[in-house]
């Protein structure tokens, strides 16, 4: 028989650890192991904070321990398998161990007396594992309708929306639950970072900064709230303000090891704006890998020689050529192979994506590949070969659809820059005129950007 266990034991974790995170909010877990419940909280807390707690063995240690504590714990399998899926570092299409973990989670759910909320969690990760990100988000939102303080559902939905470029949904998902989160609820301050990110991605920059700073007043080391402010400064081209903010708060946010490198990437973008370089390091996570690709690609468009760095990065990106988990990842892996002049790898990535579009099934990313992913890949290949006319012809018609590849406005800006560079270099007078229009548009949206000014000066030197 399965019991609803409340988190009451404090023997393993520090006194300030939120072991009552779930039970206090009416979110009991179906397991007979109190230890498994505490480990669930440990995993969730580290996920929300973007930080491995070494005193608890980090995320990996806690995931191993939760399996040992109760291998049949449905939500233990949900959070462990779900987090691996969320990293997008591997695919159930290629990784049989991960596919088996998803199947086992579904089988456990079908053979146990678990709550409707837990069943929805299982449905969500099963949909996500098939690439059906929208269906997964629907299931998490169904949970939040009845259980607005289910932080795992909120965070999984937030990340899923991020992967599909669902900006308004990402914002509103948090807004809907905010009235239910009271100051006494553990981790409540971290909702400010989530809320702020949704606000800035829908261009409510003033409100986003205000909400993020309110969160940081409560929790100074909330790296996601810091990340939101970094975005606001980036989108407003407030370079000096961004540099000062990141520097003065570095000691706070660098402890969040899972997000620290990405925040350093944002810091580096300010230097790219100023044509100054700072040391940038990567932890090896998928987020850091795509960040490294994007940073090198931007520098290369600026005329900086980064050839040797591409060769180093290829060692990381090449093994993921056949993954095709998200279009966003694919496009960045392609940057790596193009930068390293690995034409065979570039071609394999493109052909693999083309093959998957023939029978995409319910995989939302593969469904989008034909009209979005493949044209973007082809545009990058054409640009690499000096075919700037064709690059513009491929990118311009889909520029307002590129949001659907996921990521943030700041991350996708690399493709806006690519279109501008291609238009400026194109032999077509119409494309050159388009390039001028795109620069005017960019200047209006992001006033006082040093990068935009440089592009305008370059365009003037090329075409008068």
TrEMBL record:
Secretion signal span: 1-18
Keyword vocabulary terms for this entry: Repeat, Signal, TPR repeat
InterPro entries found in the cross-reference section: TPR-like_helical_dom_sf (IPR011990), TTC38 (IPR033891)
Claim: Signal is one of the keywords in the record: yes
Membrane-spanning intervals of the chain: none
PANTHER family noted in UniProt: TETRATRICOPEPTIDE REPEAT PROTEIN 38 (PTHR16263)
Similarity annotation: Belongs to the TTC38 family.
The protein, known as: Tetratricopeptide repeat protein 38
Species for this entry: Gouania willdenowi (Blunt-snouted clingfish)
